[in-house]
Each structure stands twice: as structure tokens, then as C-alpha cells.
Specification:
Blueprint (H helix, E strand, L loop, with lengths): L8 H14 L12 H8 L3 H13 L3 E4 L3 E4 L3 H27 L4 H15 L1
Antiparallel strand pairs: 1-2
GO molecular function, one term: DNA-binding transcription factor activity
Organism: Pedobacter chitinilyticus
Pfam family, one: GntR
């Protein structure tokens, strides 16, 4: 995985895990990779993955079944949606709005481009 410099690595790994869950690659109640397995896959220190997993447990996205491993929670997708939506609105949307304003982009153009993006990608 290619990491960006502008965001903590453990948060980027959290985004990766959340994306796997939202795309259905890691369905609810499925066991997820161990700390060691994901650390090897991501080529990071296991402590970084542990920090990621701690965050996702706090957000009720994953749960630890003692002696068995970590699993995706039943309501992981809705919890991820709330978490990522808040993150997007608080951190990214102000920059998007600033650029829309500075570049004088019309909302109709945005809607058309959004509709095209959804049609081509989903």
C-alpha cells in the first residue's frame, strides 16, 4: 500500500479496513486478518496495526472474540458510514467548498459530473 504523508499511517490503514468492509470483501461476522498478518501485508510495524484495530474497536467496527480473533461487527457498515461521513464533512468538505467557490464551479456541473462518476464506477 502506498501511504500519503499528510495523514497518519494508522488512519490510512483504518480507511483500508473500512473500505474492505464497505465493499463486502470482509462481511459482518467474518474474521479479519490478525495484527501480524495485516502488518506484513501493509509492510508496517505491528504496533501501527494494533493502533488501527484499537480505533476500529472503539468505533464498534470490529470486535475481539477472546482467543479466536478479531471479527467484523454486525453493524459495522452503518458505524463506518457515520464515522467516515463525519470525518469527510469536518475535514475534507471545507476544502472542496473553498475550491468550488474559488473556481466558480456551478452546482449543476457538479451534479452532472457526480452522476457520470456514479454511472461509470458503480
Amino acid at each position: 500500500m502506498e501511504f500519503r504523508e499528510n495523514k497518519a499511517i494508522y488512519l490510512q490503514i483504518a480507511d483500508f479496513v473500512c473500505e474492505q468492509i464497505m465493499l463486502g470483501k470482509w462481511p459482518s461476522e467474518q474474521k479479519i486478518p490478525s495484527v501480524r498478518e495485516l502488518a506484513i501485508e501493509m509492510e508496517v510495524n505491528p504496533n501501527t496495526v494494533m493502533r488501527t484495530y484499537d480505533l476500529l474497536q472503539q468505533k464498534n467496527v470490529i470486535q475481539n472474540k477472546r482467543g479466536v480473533g478479531l471479527f467484523v461487527t454486525d453493524d459495522a457498515v452503518s458505524n463506518i458510514t457515520v464515522y467516515r461521513r463525519t470525518q469527510f464533512i469536518d475535514e475534507e468538505l471545507p476544502t472542496v467548498f473553498r475550491n468550488i467557490y474559488l473556481l466558480n464551479i456551478d452546482f449543476d456541473e457538479l451534479k452532472n459530473r457526480y452522476d457520470t462518476f456514479v454511472k461509470e464506477n458503480f
